Batch of 4 targets.
Target 1
Amino acid sequence: MSFKTTDLCDACDQAQACALPFVGFGRRRAFAGDIRTARYTDGISALRVLVNQPGNGQVLVIDAGGLEWRALFGDVMAGLVTRNGWAGVVVNGMIRDRAEIDEMDIGVKALGTIPRRADTGGRGEIDLPIHFGGITFSPGARLVADEDGVIVLPQGLMESSINVADAIAATAEYVIGSTPK
């Protein structure tokens, strides 16, 4: 991926930066794609539906709904996501099976790890706007993630349509400063 979240934020004031301290997992540390969403509601049924669908380069954003003591995502789901062509996964919650996921060609951002899995019953919800980390993740919006964080671009914009060159030059000028004559 050739675009950095820092440059995109500098070049596009409307880019929303998620204010959560995500940890990166998997071999793919940067990824981007259109958003699909799932919300945990007493079980992972909705999440199961999505990971078994073709990802078509999309990013799966999962809201754990405040669940902190159970993992919503693990190596089995990561394997399905990888085989089905998802660009990456963002979890507002915990994952498990870190060692196995770190060996996969996948990008995952989550708040941490915990060994116990989430309940398997419950329906959950898919493809609805979800809000966490101070921003809204709407289905179809563009998400970009790298080691610096997770951002959502304004509706209809892709990273390639944002001119980052001027923002990079302005940052360099600011850091270097003008030399006295």
Target 2
Amino acid sequence: MGVFSSDADHEQVVFCQDKQSGLRAIIAIYSTALGPALGGTRFYPYAAEADALHDVLELSRGMAYKNALAGLDLGGGKAVIWGDPDREKSEPLLRAYGRFVASLGGRYYTACDVGTYVQDMDVVARETRFVTGRSVEHGGAGDSSILTAWGVFQGMRAAAEHRWGSPTLSGRTVGVAGLGKVGKHLTAHLLEDGASVVATDVSSRALDWVRATYPQVNLVDNADDLIRSDIDVYAPCALGGALDDDAVAVLRAKIVAGAANNQLSHPGVDKLLADRGILYAPDYVVNAGGVIQVADEIEGFNFDRAKLRATKIFDTTRQILALGDAEGVPPAAAADRLAERRMAEVGRLRTIRL
């Protein structure tokens, strides 16, 4: 897959290399129509460069739409560092990456993602000020998964109201695929709301944690078993592509609402879900709590203000589901239309000469 052969219409794609530190990174800016691009840095051992490029292009586009629907005056971008974070992450590598972020002059703000943490952002910030998602000790918000999970829970409540008439998961069974940073917090919210939780994870450490912390959670061996389980809501909270044609064909849930990015393996999956009567709460709508949290740092972080903004994901999800019904399109298409409308209408104002 080449950059110019992509039809994603990105503004800028930057390949970054520092051989001495081992850095191999790609920064993709999809849109700055609403403001500087904001999106996290994923550190992942991709099988090939083409896989890294595909991921960063898809993720950066998703960030543009996510930030638009979250009501932020920020565009969409993303970065990937190609490598194994457990073996290759180092201070020189992270600082070299920070130099490349700085070279963009503020067109791109970075933050945490899979394989990177607030401590890593503190290191990157030693080379550039265009970093958010930093530790509390350095004036940041800390772990962005807290409000990511809160936003997913709000989106799930809105989907439950749309499907069953009441904005609660009480008495429902929710399948959580992935008990990482977000899945753990989401599980807590669901249990507090009175839901039953069935879960799985590829990490034995995560499974041991949930056994010790929430023994009432039922565990299954893998995501395939979870999809086939007798659940009301399916919550993908790991890597993307969880929903393909085969998974949709056997999925028993009536709602899909989770934290993972790019949950649909291809654009037609949203229609497959709709044809089976499964309500899909678009991932980039419901998982926007994290970006709302880190974006708030740019103003000077206030947790209560950020949580209030993340709580509004309930209203945004409700609006999108209603629009989908009114226009006869799947929720993902309705969400895209709202995001594109805001990027076009607000972006146009930036052409007015002052």
Target 3
Amino acid sequence: MHPLGLIAASVVERENLHILLQKGVSPHDFSLRPSDIDHLQEADIIFWGGPHIEPYLSGFARRWPDKVWIDISSFSELAKIKDPHYWMSVPATLAAQKVLADTLGKDSSDFQRRVEAAVEYSDRVLEPVRERGFFVFHRAYDHWVLERGLNQVGAFTLTPEQKPGMRTVQLMREQLRAGKVACVFREPEYSPALVVTVVGDLPVKHGELDPQGAYADLSRDGYAYFLTEMADRAANCLTP
């Protein structure tokens, strides 16, 4: 996945890094192609999201135990909650990146400094809007929301494949009418039709968050930029 590629790119040269899920492709509806399996066979180290978020890799992890498999979800004890989007948790990310760096015989301290600076920046720009409520498109941001102390009121859907029921839609519209929601966030991979249907003509700001971080390049500071850009987008939409 691209966000894991952003983490790996901190210590892996671009020519040695292959991303199975390219930008804009969601792990929720992805299936491996024969060429993807070839890339897995050729790889020495596979940095992945774990069996819950990338179930299509689980069988290969059992089949090829001689390869180095670094599963970011194995660092779940460092996160405050159990949610499969562990690249959204800074402690889990730092720990997983360190294992990758150590495996390659490289230093992880530069990545840690960049991420810590991104967290400091994020907290600074988000401080004025921490109490302002918002809806996200789907439940991919829980680690980020909790670690940054934000007020996520709800999500349009648990996963992109599931549409909310009428009761959920009615509750969300009641929250919108009551002024409890300052911004609704869509995602670039999915049609905004669901968001438009729920919000209708109610006066609430719209923004865009991308849990895949497609806007960030695979570079040494790509993951840090992913964090700061997400903070900027949230702050811009939540600011009155």
Target 4
Amino acid sequence: MGVIEVGRVCIKTAGREAGRKCVVVKLLDENFVVVTGPKELTGVKRRRVNVKHLVPLNIKIDIEEDADDKKVIEALKETSIYQEIMKERKAG
């Protein structure tokens, strides 16, 4: 179980994007963060989410707080999770 922090890859557990991977890009307070898929990669829009609706994975990418989607995708490409996401897109 990872900790919720900027760059942490998570799975959403609630809402229409439940089951999809996303990346924490900003911490708002102890209950809310901003995540992005990014949308063109995983289908998760950049939005505010309750941390109770996230399951952190053991993967953390190296991004700055509030990084844009392009930077998030570039950082994801350097991880094994990127290949996993691409396989899920092809399957889905």
